[in-house]
Amino acid sequence: MKFGKVEHPELIDFTLPKIHPKTIEVLSSFEKSEKPNVFVGCAKWNKADLKGFYPRGTKDELEYYSKQFNSIELNATFYRQFPAEQFAKWKAKTPKGFKFFPKLGQEISHWKRLEGVQDAVNIYLDNASNLEEKLGTIFLQMHSNFGPKNFDRLQNFAVSWPKGIPLAIEVRHPDWFQDTVVFDEFTQLLEENNIANVLVDTAGRRDMVHMRLTNNEAFVRYVGANHPTDYTRLDDWIVRLKEWNDLGLQNINFFIHQNLEVESPLLAEYFIKKLNKELGINLKIPNEENNQQMSLL
Predict the structure, then answer these.
(1) Confidence class for position 246, pLDDT limits 50, 70, 90
(2) How far apart are CA 126 and CA 100, in angstroms?
(3) InterPro entries per the record (predicted)?
């Protein structure tokens, strides 16, 4: 993901904002859970992007990937409409407990811009439902030129979304974040409809790491800069997720991107090790067996 890329990340203040007061209010309404549901993954599984991640001779990339991570942010569904059979194949290739978090198609978000999209949404959901228990939260990412003047479209979409299917929404136009009244109206809409508010942590758009959760789900899209600060930024997220968990957060979905995706699994390995320790969970460490074998050579 190149969104928010900057030439000199060392000049960016990556300090995470304070927890939004409304987030404290939202999370405090839930019973505290010692061990939250945590899914950490990359955005892609193809070998061309994740060079060096797959052992030599790997025949099926998804099958191997899904044994290393418990989830994938499925961006491929943004670019084309996959048939039901493809979703069923993906489900069959992955182990128990694995989840897909697919992005809604660009026809819905970018071409039609949420207007007259009911048929397209129904087709998408009919097909994606073949993931069955492996279907995680679906997310909608709007174009960066989709601003608050389109609030009515977003409202109609949110209200009509099937209530039994988890949804997260990401808006990108700066005007959603700069005007407090607009931001409050947007987040209240999500809260009223039990829709997660996507947080994007990327160098060039610090307004999108707003710390405003709208339900009991943190859906975080972390974009590294292929820079040493990527690791200290993840350290800060460990602290923040622990704080949210202490407040009552039960669902964490954290997806790691890079401008050059080759480093994403390395960041994920670092992040998962620390998250396991801090939250008392036991997510698998990606490629741990291979790393142990290499250390013995």
Answers:
(1) very high
(2) 15
(3) DUF72 (IPR002763), UPF0759_sf (IPR036520)
Residues 55-99 have pLDDT tens digits of 999 999 999 999 999 999 999 999 999 999 999 999 999 999 999
Better-predicted residue by pLDDT, 172 or 227: 172
- The residue count for the chain: 297
Per the listing, tokens 């128990």 go with 96
Q: DSSP 3-state assignment of 158? A: helix
Provide CB contacts within 8 A for 250, sequence distance 6+. 30, 33, 36, 37, 216, 217
> In terms of residue numbers, what domain contains 52?
9-296
Strand order in the sheet with 196-197: 138-141, 167-170, 196-197
Residue type, 162: P
Structural domain includes residue 3: no
pLDDT above 70: residue 294: no
Give the count of beta carbons closer than 10 Å to the beta carbon of residue 26.
Answer: 21
User: Any idea what the CATH number is for the domain that residue 239 is in?
Assistant: 3.20.20.410
Please state, in angstroms and rounded to a whole number, the distance separating the CA atoms of residues 107 and 113.
8
What does the pLDDT average to over 248-261? Answer: 90
Pull the structure tokens for residue 275.
Answer: 């998250």
Greatest C-alpha distance within the chain: 61
State which amino acid sits at residue 271: F
Q: What's the number of domains the chain is made of?
A: 1
Q: What is the mean pLDDT of the chain?
A: 93
The SS3 call for residue 197 is: strand
Question: What gap in Å lies between CA 36 and CA 227, rounded to an integer?
Answer: 30
